[in-house]
Amino acid sequence: MRTSRTLGLIMIAPAAIMILLFFLMPVVLTAVFSLTNMSTATGISGGAYQVTQAAVNRLTTDMPELAAAISEPRFVIDGEGVAALEALQLKPHFATELRSEHLGEVFASRREAERVIKALKDRPSTREVKRISDLFNRSVLNTRFETREALLESLRKLGFDLTPEEQEAVAKATYTGWVWTADNFRIIGNSPDMAQVFLNTAFYVAVTLLLFNVGYALFLAVTTHYMTASTASIFRAVWLLPRITPVVIYILMWKWLTWDNGFLSLFMGQFGYPAKNYLLDNARDAWFFVILLNGFIGASMGMLVFSSAIKAIPETQFHASEMDGASRWQQIRYIILPQLRWPILFVTCYQTLSLLASFNEILLSTRGGPGRATEVWSLAAYHTALQNYTGNLEYGLGAAMALVLVVIGVILSLIYLRVFRYDTLISKPLIED
Amino acid sequence: MRILLDKFSKSFGTTKVIEGMDLEVGSGEMLALLGPSGCGKSTTLFAICGIHRPTSGRILFGDKDVTGLPSQERNVGVVFQSYALYPHMTVAENIGFPLTVRRLAAADIRKEVAEIAALVHIDNLLDRRPSQLSGGQQQRVALARALIRRPDVLLLDEPLANLDAKLRLEMRSEIRRLQKETGITAILVTHDQVEAMSMCDRIAIMKAGEIVQIATPSGMYNDPRSAFVAGFLGNPPISFLKGRAEQGAFVFANGIRLSLAILGGIPDGTVLTLGVRPEHFGTSGDIAVDGKIAFAETQGRENLYDVILPDGSVLRSIQSVRNDVAVGDAVRWSLDSKAALVFAEDGRRL
Ligand SMILES: Nc1ncnc2c1ncn2[C@@H]1O[C@H](COP(=O)(O)OP(=O)(O)OP(=O)(O)O)[C@@H](O)[C@H]1O
Ligand SMILES: [Mg+2]
């Protein structure tokens, strides 16, 4: 017993590892990324601490005085500066006096530092004062520190005596790498753009699913059921074409149909309509074609699943229902549809998920346009994380959007299972002779 | 309602299943279609109910030609060989389906279903699904569904095949009672001759797509037209002896003769088959036959013996239970020569 259990574990181990690596890990990683602000700017490895103007701006919102002070130049009379002064070969006493009298002094502004330099015994000229003060300018602006300690140490040397909160704020504002944050979800929740994309997605999925992937597929399956076998198979083959055509070519054909000099424009031209790009001229037309070209691909799968499910119904049930006086329509309603509950559930579920996740047809045809009219969630995630015009790819935000998609998919599946009463479907035998 | 098949033929592609069949079933009559598997019984039934279109010929209900009429308009009730219950509906929904598609009020349907369910004794099963029923219960649901809309014609395709012996006996009389009460015209397809003989007014025996004889059960039993018919009816079955005619006697291959009065007038040398039913060989009869008991079986009230004759052929005998003979014993039993049936080489009755 025990050995057989161990053996079983060993046997499934490769599959388990595969599942872990290729199915679970991506989801986990997506979840991890979604909790960061990773982007092209932050990179995906660690970052450094840099007091850029942007960092100062960030700090200004919380601690305006500190931010202003840090961004100000700082002047420190240190050995380094004195050595540099000696190298300039001005009057030698400048250096010796600064070293003996003022070494270690820190001035908050250029004016204060220059007052001391001007007062040197050898009286430097105004131009020399400027040159000398430059040598002691120790501003942290635009300096890069590899660690937080180096940054704070440097600030301390410059006379900033920071409280722990201030240290924290400065470090946070100046960090150039990615950090953990839930901001992505806040952005998704609050941005009106995201809400629009969400509505687009709901519209696209619902309409395509209802009209084509389930509705039209059912229509095809039922009508082909009542055709002779050869006509039916021709019909099914025709509807399979969109599915088996490579998607790039398939979309290209739609473009030939809808472009300014495409078939539609030529045809409408016969009736005096000006040529236009029917795919992109307005949101309504764009949706029309996006749903149509996706629906034609999607309908074939449902058609196949439903057809074979109808075939699995014993023929005598159709005979019996005819004897019972059922018309065709009543056969469909009372005999076929009730026995297609499980395939309909399966197709609805599967196609919802694939419609939610797939965007290649839209990307290739409208690119989400015109404007962002046909931008759906997955396409928006792609644009955010992998391909956008600003060049700053926001991996973290994209991952968060993908995660939202996964969650929505799971929730919808659970709802479908409830609606179609999955438990009753599996707990009782479906077919018997 | 009378059913008439007029030169009915049916072929599937190039396979001819039925050719030029003529059959009349009188109004209120119950007819058995009896025949071996694959002889075209179901095909005939399917043509009558409208599932198959005849390749040629006509089908009449009463005086009305229904050949081109769709099944829905024929008012025929059918119990299919496989029952064809709807697995997703409860028993009540199954039985009420013919009324549902006629858009009767739900309350009326419920009432009629309850009535008919009581008739076939399944009123306690109405909420179950077909998968939760035994074969016999399913069969009664199918019967109730066929009867509920009071059809003119009832077609039963081996309805009792799945039942145990006791239930089968019960259902036989049940169906017959229902049929007589409702005065419905019925065709029962079966390959169980006992069923055919006990339930039906007349029997039509089919062989390879043709009706070889139609008669009442006793007429068919006592006066079969061919060896095929004689072999098909009777349980235990008739035994056949091969030989030829010689001066009013039946001569086996090894020369042993049985003088039979019924052979008078048959030319010498004619090759013959002699059919002897088990009840015509045993304790009473006019000709003595020697043999050895090869097999004995008790059937409770009666015993069945196989007796090997000197030439190797076998005669079956059924007699009241006795304990004085056993397998291996040599016996000399009597054969009732007047009841023996004589067939020509091609199976024709002489
Ligand atoms: N759809 C069909 N296509 C081709 N041949 C068929 C078809 N239906 C029946 N047949 C053939 O017709 C013949 C008669 O079939 P049928 O079903 O009527 O037999 P049956 O007498 O009902 O036999 P059983 O007692 O086994 O039910 C068989 O040889 C069968 O193979
Ligand atoms: Mg049959």
Describe the structure concisely for a colleague:
The complex is a heterodimer of chains A (433) and B (350). Helices cover 70% and strands 2% of the residues of chain A. Chain A is built from 22 helices and four strands.
Would you write up a description of this structure?
The complex is a heterodimer of chains A (about 425) and B (about 350). By secondary structure, chain A is mainly α. Chain A has two domains: about 50-175, no CATH class; about 190-430, Orthogonal Bundle (MetI-like fold), CATH 1.10.3720.10. Chain A has 22 helices and four strands. In chain A, helix 2 packs antiparallel against helix 9 (about 165-175), helix 10 (about 185-190) crosses helix 21 and helix 18 (about 340-355) packs antiparallel against helix 21 (about 395-420). The radius of gyration of chain A is 35 Å and the shape is elongated. Chain B is an alpha+beta fold. Chain B has two domains: about 5-230, Rossmann fold, CATH 3.40.50.300; about 240-345, OB fold (Dihydrolipoamide Acetyltransferase, E2P) (Beta Barrel), CATH 2.40.50. In chain B, about 25% of the residues lie in helices and about 35% in strands. Chain B has eight helices and 20 strands. In chain B, the strands form four sheets. Chain B has a six-stranded mixed sheet with strand order 6-7-8-3-9-10, with helices on both faces. A five-stranded antiparallel sheet of chain B has the order 13-12-11-14-20. Chain B has a five-stranded antiparallel sheet with strand order 15-19-16-17-18, with no helix packed on it. In chain B, helix 2 (about 90-100) crosses helix 3 and helix 2 packs parallel to helix 4. The model of chain B has no long low-confidence stretch (mean pLDDT about 90). Classes of the chains: A mainly alpha (about 425), B alpha+beta (about 350). At the A-B interface, helix 16 and helix 17 of A face strand 6 and helix 2 of B. Adenosine-5'-triphosphate binds near residues 12 and 191 of chain B. Magnesium ion (MG) binds near residues 41, 42, 81 and 157 of chain B.
